[in-house]
């Protein structure tokens, strides 16, 4: 089965394209194209709404005598699907949009209006900044403050990262893991050791030994000792404890015993039950406990070191904050100096403009003086011309008088 849409056509070997007659087409001829409506429109004739993206078979032509920066503009003609009225629109490269020319009008588009309003506000703000130097200065100060805030936030983040970098999460996890891995017997053993330390016992060579305080040796009453009667004179080896139970007698004589108080004996029995005597040779479990105690002490030392490092970092942070405050003060002073310089420049510019006006007035005065001098010359020329004209008026009178004189002389001669 052949293809429905053929892309490649067969050309015979004797094909000569020059023999194909060329059709004479008009200069601005229309082409039929398939397009989609660029926006939502409404027909003027029937009021049909045409949605954006609806496809039409349109006629395309070039718009004569209309280009934008050398870009050609095209016009399209479509027919309304409701009343077959013709609708035309053209491209607008300046705003990268389309313009509806005839047959319909564009519906309301909030996004387009918002973009136009934003562009208009931006243009007005730019013009206001260009015309108002104080507003430009305010914007510069705000921008510098924003930059300072950004730098401060960056420094805070760096300090936080350094603080977290000094703390090793793996080490902390190992500590808690070691505590979790301890068995219930080890926990009870640790609690028992802490209780004995609170009572004054210490671990020496794997055995709990009580340290007697020297300051209490003289104050505390000593326990009562067993004493003999002076009348006992031997019999049965005095001084040896007999094996009879419940008699409480020493030897076989009549020697008496001072008994120990019952409360003290109960305390000793309790303590003897708490103390676990160990052999002199340390076993593997004792060694493990000693190692655990050493690890705990090392962890405490590491915690102290970490606290010292944190305190040092806090001191460094305070110094950095002081430096930042000093920088801000310096920036404020610099801004004040800039404002003062701008004020001075404005005053100088005003004086320069005043001087320019004075110079213009002086130049005008010079021109006026030149005109006055020219007027004087013109007046002198006018006076000379008046004199010449006066002389010309006098000349015919003189001629008449000379003529009369000559006639009078002639008449006298005739009379003679």
Automatic annotation (TrEMBL):
Pfam families to which the protein is assigned, alphabetical: Saf4_Yju2
Residue numbers spanned by region Disordered: 213-259
Any Gene Ontology CC annotation: U2-type catalytic step 1 spliceosome
Highest taxon above the source species: Eukaryota
Keywords of this entry: Coiled coil, Metal-binding, mRNA processing, mRNA splicing, Nucleus, Spliceosome, Zinc
Residue stretches in coiled coil: 293-361
Molecular function per GO: metal ion binding
Positions contributing to Zn(2+) binding: 43, 46, 80, 83
UniProt record, GO biological process: generation of catalytic spliceosome for first transesterification step
Compartments, as annotated in UniProt: Nucleus
Complexes and interactors: Component of the spliceosome. Present in the activated B complex, the catalytically activated B* complex which catalyzes the branching, the catalytic step 1 C complex catalyzing the exon ligation, and the postcatalytic P complex containing the ligated exons (mRNA) and the excised lariat intron.
Function per UniProt: Part of the spliceosome which catalyzes two sequential transesterification reactions, first the excision of the non-coding intron from pre-mRNA and then the ligation of the coding exons to form the mature mRNA. Plays a role in stabilizing the structure of the spliceosome catalytic core and docking of the branch helix into the active site, producing 5'-exon and lariat intron-3'-intermediates.
Family note: Belongs to the CWC16 family. YJU2 subfamily.
Name by which UniProt lists this protein: Splicing factor YJU2
Origin species: Petrolisthes cinctipes
């Amino acid at each position: 089965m052949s293809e429905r849409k053929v892309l490649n056509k067969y050309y015979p070997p004797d094909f000569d394209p020059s023999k194909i007659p060329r059709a004479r087409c008009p200069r601005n001829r229309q082409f039929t194209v398939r397009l989609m409506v660029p926006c939502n429109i409404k027909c003027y004739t029937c009021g049909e709404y045409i949605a954006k993206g609806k496809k039409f078979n349109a006629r395309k032509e070039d718009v004569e005598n209309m280009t934008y920066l050398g870009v050609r503009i095209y016009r399209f003609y479509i027919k309304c699907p409701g009343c077959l009225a013709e609708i035309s629109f053209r491209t607008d490269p300046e705003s990268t949009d389309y313009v509806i020319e005839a047959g319909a009008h564009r519906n309301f588009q909030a996004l387009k209006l918002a973009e136009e309003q934003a562009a208009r506000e931006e243009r007005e703000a730019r013009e206001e900044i260009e015309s108002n130097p104080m507003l430009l200065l305010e914007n510069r100060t705000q921008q510098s403050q924003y930059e300072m805030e950004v730098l401060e936030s960056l420094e805070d983040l760096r300090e936080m990262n350094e603080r977290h970098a000094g703390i090793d999460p793996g080490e902390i996890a190992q500590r808690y893991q070691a505590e979790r891995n301890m068995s219930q017997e080890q926990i009870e053993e640790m609690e028992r050791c802490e209780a004995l330390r609170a009572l004054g016992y210490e671990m020496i060579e794997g055995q709990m030994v009580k340290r007697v305080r020297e300051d209490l040796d003289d104050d505390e009453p000593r326990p009562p000792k067993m004493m003999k009667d002076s009348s006992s004179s031997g019999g049965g080896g005095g001084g040896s404890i007999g094996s009879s139970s419940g008699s409480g007698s020493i030897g076989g004589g009549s020697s008496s015993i001072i008994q120990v108080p019952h409360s003290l004996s109960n305390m000793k029995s309790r303590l003897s039950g708490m103390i676990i005597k160990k052999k002199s040779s340390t076993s593997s479990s004792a060694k493990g406990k000693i190692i655990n105690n050493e690890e705990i002490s090392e962890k405490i030392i590491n915690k102290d070191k970490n606290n010292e490092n944190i305190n040092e970092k806090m001191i460094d942070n305070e110094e950095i904050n002081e430096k930042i405050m000093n920088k801000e003060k310096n920036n404020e002073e610099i801004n004040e100096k800039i404002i003062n310089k701008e004020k001075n420049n404005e005053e100088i510019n005003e004086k320069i403009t005043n001087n320019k006006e004075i110079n213009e007035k002086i130049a005008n005065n010079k021109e006026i003086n030149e005109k006055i001098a020219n007027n004087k010359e013109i007046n002198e020329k006018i006076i000379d011309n008046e004199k010449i004209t006066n002389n010309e008026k006098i000349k015919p009178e003189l001629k008449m008088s000379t003529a009369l004189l000559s006639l009078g002389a002639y008449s006298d001669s005739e009379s003679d």
